[in-house]
Amino acid sequence: MNLTTLEYFVQVATEGSLTKAADKLFISQPTLSRHMKNLEAELNTQLFVRQSHSLKLTENGITFLKATTKVIQDVDALKHFFDQHQTASNPTHYLNVGYLENFRLEKMYAVLDQISHENNIQFSLFPDTPTNLSKGLSSGKYDLIYSLRPYTTDNVLFKSTDFLENHLQIALPINHPLAMKPQLSFSDLKNETFILLDRDKSPIIVDNVLSQGIKNGYNLKANYYVKNLSQGLSMTALGNGLAFLYSAMNDGQLEKQYRIKIKDLTDNFGNQNIVIAMKRSVDNALIGSIFEKIIDTKKNR
Predict the structure, then answer these.
(1) Which parts of the sequence belong to the HTH lysR-type domain (predicted)?
(2) Of 94, 128, 272, 300, which is the most buried if we count CB atoms within 10 A?
């Protein structure tokens, strides 16, 4: 086991994709895949659940990511141990950031990268579910989180602001009769069968979707419950039902990738935007300062 492999592991875990990680690391995908398989063999444990178009950390993978991140941080600090410029007045600061799985957060990466270079901050990024992000921010596991507005707005302990526009969409099989309509509402979906995300992954959103069906005079028929976006869209492509997703998950390539159609839903679901949040009562003044810098940097981009 070497430091390079650990750095590769963190990149793959952050991207959730060998292809995206390989592009950022400037190495070939087969080489990166070999590094990950060798690492799993050396640890004698499975770090990733390999899906058709993505990778997801196992429970052991999540634990190992936290330990690996600390090792890399410690090694980075050692590199500057005798650096004359690394004085007590300008140390490297480390912040843990939780973010949503399956979402396109290029703006998050760009903003954090800019702030990191300008303020001598090293961010460690951890993918998580909306529920766990809120719990992690409350417990101090995360210093900042990027989450969905419904999971932060009612928590008086959190300070949050919108970061990225986001709204609900529906995925249909490519030849579905409703695929010809430019946009849809829940009233159009009365006779459909659905594929829903496991409730423990995002209970507020699942409850919201179910309540919209009731408002329109029917109960949603869910034949399948899935753990992630890739699984849901794959089942939609096979004609097993319609799947909900967010616009911030859609990179414009999903329709082609899965051979499906994706439509906006016109119903009013309230604010579903991606927000950045911090705890109001936090001892570390740096977190509040970085929170404000992230907001300012995003406005100026």
Answers:
(1) 1-58
(2) 128
